[in-house]
Design a protein that fits this description.
Layout lengths: L5 H15 L5 E3 L1 H9 L4 E16 L1 H7 L4 E12 L6 E5 L7 E4 L2 E4 L7 H10 L1 H6 L8 H5 L2 H21 L5
Parallel strand pairs: 1-6
Antiparallel strand pairs: 2-3, 2-4, 4-5, 5-6
Length: 175
């Protein structure tokens, strides 16, 4: 999110325009980092990479807003994190990455992936195999660990995604 590339700057400007015009934004991972930046928050390298499945705690406000349990398991593949933007509230947090989500009005961000499928996780592992072999830390899983119990994990994640996306779309103007 901090790389000096034209397309990243264009995306940040697009997000700032959406914020100025109150166009609702839903961001995942890089999208969450970009939304945080567009809101004036810092994005920086997390102390350790987050790759694989991890438990997140969900704040009581987010539990009510998004119809979620007190904790859940998210899929992650990120190295960076963000501060909670001014005027926003944290929705999720985890042991190895404090800020896993925030909400500010109709703008929601998740430092994790609710949208992955079994096929996309398998493809990510296959295409990122060398990255997985180089990455290390307490929040990095091996390909074997990521793929273990994949079907039930994806099913549970999709149930969470359905509730979350339904809550997000329910708060939009339907004209």
């Amino acid at each position: 999110a901090n790389e000096q590339l034209r397309w990243i700057e264009n995306e940040r400007c697009l997000l700032q325009s959406a914020l100025q015009h109150d166009v609702p934004v839903l961001g995942h991972c890089f999208g969450a980092q970009m939304l945080a930046r567009a809101m004036g928050a810092r994005v920086w390298r997390n102390p350790c990479p987050n790759i694989g499945w991890s438990e997140v705690r969900i704040t009581s406000h987010a539990q009510q807003l998004m119809d979620l349990p007190a904790q859940a398991t998210l899929f992650n593949w990120h190295y960076d994190t963000f501060e909670i933007p001014q005027g926003a509230s944290r929705t999720m947090y985890a042991q190895h990455c404090l800020n896993k989500g925030f909400v500010r009005g109709r703008h929601w961000a998740f430092q994790g992936h609710l949208e992955v499928t079994e096929a996309s996780v398998r493809q990510w592992c296959s295409e990122g195999r060398s990255e997985l072999q180089r990455a290390s830390g307490p929040a990095v899983q091996s390909e074997t660990q990521i793929l273990a119990q994949l079907q039930p994990r994806i099913a549970q994640l999709h149930a969470m995604a359905l509730r979350t996306y339904r809550a997000w779309t329910d708060q939009l103007d339907h004209q």
